[in-house]
Design goal:
single chain, about 80 residues, alpha+beta, 2 helices, 4 strands, about 45% strand
């Protein structure tokens, strides 16, 4: 079963803490190691990142967390292939 994370707020918020937690939940040793993805609004545009690897091993997860991206709406998932 996949796990979802969503963040919605009237004030744009950074996802740095959430990205660190996402990476810990999706490590290669865990059940949620078959991929991950995140999408968020960046002004009028939507940015989407997806990888078929474990979030804990992903340089993209670390990069997104370090950028301190701010958004009003964020959705993310960790994938468990069945």
């Amino acid at each position: 079963m996949c796990e979802l994370f969503a963040l919605s707020g009237s004030i744009a918020t950074t996802t740095s803490l959430s990205m660190a937690r996402l990476a810990r939940r999706g490590d290669r040793a865990g059940r949620l190691s078959d991929g991950w993805g995140i999408g968020f609004y960046d002004g009028p545009d939507v940015r989407i990142f997806r990888e078929p690897e474990a979030a804990g091993d992903s340089a993209w997860v670390r990069f997104i967390g370090e950028q301190r991206i701010r958004s009003h709406l964020v959705m993310s998932h960790l994938r468990h292939a069945t």
